[in-house]
Amino acid sequence: MCAPTILQMYLAKYFDEIVKITSPQAKAIVKKRKRIKDFLDQLNLSYLPGDATFYFFVSIKGFEDSALDLSLTMLFKYGIAYHCRL
Hints:
about 90 residues; mainly alpha; 2 helices; elongated
């Protein structure tokens, strides 16, 4: 039996229970992502479209300071962890 088979069997057996447990978590993440999207819109920061992941790929074009400055501002002023590629 290959490793993925065990996981597939577990998921098949407990699928409804897993969905019941994880649905509130998934809904909370969707709400949180929307709040962050709205916040980025307020800051007039553009980002790549998509909603299949929690992450945002934000353009800092037009931001007057460095990417590191933006990361520090987002973290310490707004409590948002922001990874910049230097």
